[in-house]
């Protein structure tokens, strides 16, 4: 009887959702509008209150000490390629290097000589009012985040001069059958993958508004596929081919570096999936470091096509124009972010883990060569899975998804493709071990929550509703 009534009462809701969907599908503009309204009315006030924009003398001095190197980037002293520090994949660090990196992050988090602490002081720059408009959805995205990473890296070096920022090569997880059991989601690396982060180096961290870090991996979004990135680099004739040209130009089918990046934010879920909360999870910086590596490869590719990546800044007007001041780094122009000097003067990337030396390769005890998911005839470095018993049962994932949906405030990174949205459909599939009322609660809470609903591609929305229909929800 209960199911019957649920069915009867649900049908009109589903019909109205379908109608809504058709309208939304009609035009990307509506989606853009919704998102824009969302930005204006919902998020900024709630998040901006975390800290006022005012900085104290002490804070200004500290920032200046971090930015001194960045500010001197135009100095004409001779720079030798490879003179900077080396950024490695997190699994390629020695145990000692990894320990130092996590310690330096925690030293920043525990240092309250600036408010609320050094780590969050830097993370809070990613919550500022114009961060979405001026540092995302356009050509300033790549350069802005490159400088932002350097700022954190200099802060880490103040705590431990031997530390450099590692990157998380998420294309390794992208080739795994089930990336939720990767060694990364253990206390030795980033801590748990679902619900509140309670273990590992950030297990006790809270955001400035008192929230625990949260993750909900593999529920939405998708991971980077190495073949997609290689294809993008081969095909790009210039930056304009792989860089967004503005908020209005965003589509769900585009192939841009920023869209690839969005998908991974959405895939990690929780704190990382909110545009204005992401930087509170240190994984943000490792993810962006990998995006920066991809950009560096793209730049090499452009040079081979006789395009100078330094001057090839897409034609843009307004805040993201080449000559406009870089947001929050107004001693730079946006085009300065595209300078070769950052990688010639400050840092280089270590090679991505590779099996080119034969199947014994990868040079990490946490990686091994195995056939890839997309091309089984090839071997690629893939992550070890964990012996550490973390509960990744459907019930944990369900709890985690509900928590994620109910608590992530503000705009979320959109998942711009349907490539491999897996977690959501596993939980609501007819073979799901969840009860029907749980499945129903999950599906309806997605439909009812604008920042989630707007963050999934149209095709996923349709599939979701079709599945709900076929299950009689
Ligand atoms: Cu960002």
From TrEMBL:
The GO molecular function terms of this record are: metal ion binding; oxidoreductase activity
The Tyrosinase copper-binding domain, residue ranges: 136-153, 281-292
Q: Which residues form a coiled coil?
A: none
TM ranges: none
The signal peptide, as residue positions, is 1-16
PROSITE patterns recorded = TYROSINASE_1 (PS00497), TYROSINASE_2 (PS00498)
Tell me the domain of life. Eukaryota
A Pfam cross-reference name: Tyrosinase
Question: Which keywords are on file for this protein?
Answer: Copper, Metal-binding, Signal
Q: Which InterPro entries match?
A: Di-copper_centre_dom_sf (IPR008922), Tyrosinase/Hemocyanin (IPR050316), Tyrosinase_Cu-bd (IPR002227)
Query: PANTHER family from the entry?
Result: TYROSINASE FAMILY MEMBER, TYROSINASE-LIKE PROTEIN TYR-1-RELATED
- Supply the name of the protein: Tyrosinase 3
Q: Which organism's genome codes for this protein?
A: Pinctada fucata (Akoya pearl oyster)
């Amino acid at each position: 009887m209960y199911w019957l009534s649920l069915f009867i009462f649900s049908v009109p809701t589903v019909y109205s959702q379908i109608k809504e969907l058709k309208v939304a599908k009609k035009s990307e503009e509506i989606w853009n509008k919704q998102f824009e309204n969302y930005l204006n009315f919902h998020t900024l006030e709630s998040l901006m209150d975390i800290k006022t924009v005012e900085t104290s003398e002490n804070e200004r001095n500290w920032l200046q000490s971090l930015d001194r190197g960045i500010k001197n980037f135009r100095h004409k002293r001779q720079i030798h390629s490879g003179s900077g520090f080396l950024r490695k994949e997190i699994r390629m660090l020695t145990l000692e290097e990894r320990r130092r990196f996590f310690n330096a992050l925690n030293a920043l988090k525990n240092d309250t000589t600036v408010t609320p602490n050094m780590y969050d002081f830097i993370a809070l720059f990613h919550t500022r009012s114009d961060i979405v408009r001026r540092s995302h959805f356009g050509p300033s995205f790549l350069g802005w985040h490159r400088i932002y990473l350097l700022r954190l890296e200099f802060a880490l070096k103040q705590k431990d001069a031997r530390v450099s920022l590692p990157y998380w090569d998420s294309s390794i997880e992208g080739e795994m059958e089930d990336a939720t059991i990767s060694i990364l989601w253990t206390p030795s690396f980033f801590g748990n993958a679902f619900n509140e982060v309670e273990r590992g180096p950030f297990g006790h961290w809270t955001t400035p508004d008192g929230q625990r870090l949260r993750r909900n991996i593999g529920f939405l979004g998708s991971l980077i596929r190495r073949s997609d990135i290689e294809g993008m680099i081969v095909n790009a004739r210039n930056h304009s081919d792989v860089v967004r040209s503005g908020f209005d130009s965003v589509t769900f089918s585009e192939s841009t570096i920023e869209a690839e990046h969005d998908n991974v934010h959405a895939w990690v879920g929780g704190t990382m999936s909110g545009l204005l909360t992401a930087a509170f999870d240190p994984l943000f910086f490792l993810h962006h470091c990998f995006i920066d590596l991809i950009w560096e490869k793209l730049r090499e590719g452009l040079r081979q096509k006789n395009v100078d990546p330094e001057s090839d800044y897409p034609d843009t007007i307004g805040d993201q124009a080449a000559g406009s001041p870089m947001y929050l780094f107004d001693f730079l122009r946006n085009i300065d972010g595209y300078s070769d000097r950052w990688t010639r003067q400050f840092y280089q990337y270590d090679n991505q883990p590779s099996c080119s030396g034969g199947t014994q390769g990868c040079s990490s005890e946490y990686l091994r060569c195995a056939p890839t998911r997309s091309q089984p005839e090839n071997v690629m470095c893939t992550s070890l899975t964990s012996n550490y018993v973390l509960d990744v049962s459907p019930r944990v994932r369900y709890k985690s998804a509900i928590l994620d949906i109910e608590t992530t405030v503000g705009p979320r990174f959109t998942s711009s493709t349907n490539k491999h949205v897996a977690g959501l459909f596993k939980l609501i599939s007819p073979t799901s071990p969840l009860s029907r009322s749980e499945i129903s609660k999950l599906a309806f809470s997605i439909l009812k929550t604008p920042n989630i609903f707007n963050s999934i591609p149209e095709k996923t929305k349709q599939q979701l509703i079709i599945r709900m229909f076929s299950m009689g929800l």
